Amino acid sequence: MRSSATPRDVPADPIDLPPRRRLEGVTNVVSGYAGGAAKDADYDRVSTESTGHAEAVKITYDPDHVSFGKLLEVYFLVAHDPTEVNRQGPDTGPSYRSAIFPQSSEQERFARGYIAKLNAAHIWKKRIATRIEHSGFYPAEAYHQGFASKHPTYPYIAINDRPKLTALKQKFPALYKG
Fold it and tell me: What is the pTM of this model?
């Protein structure tokens, strides 16, 4: 990570991480797509599982308040099961792969090292399937932005995302902003 205190953008995985008001140091969250071409970056095309995109989240954060390493901890320990291949919860296909899209060689080295440490610790029964990829990020359609906050009782959100907020509160109480 760079040593400056300016906010940074980190495209993450297809997980809709808690909105910025819930995670200390996160200043913006944008839902979108990464891993494919700009011309194919829309929900209908990505849903065909033939574009090469992953559903992704671009996270802007203030490193004076939260580190890249801490964001990786939340990602691996709360946001999803990093051992799943092309699957996140009930969703399956390559657009649901576990991937990190680092924005610098330093972030890439850190992420690779973190994954190696987790694998060596045998926290999960299977090895981590999270891939390190390089690609542009393309914001999703407006109706995807802040979907969980706008629709907290939507069945998918209630069943799949609400438990992640509970886990975030329990595992990272200092980061959680209710």
Answer: 0.84
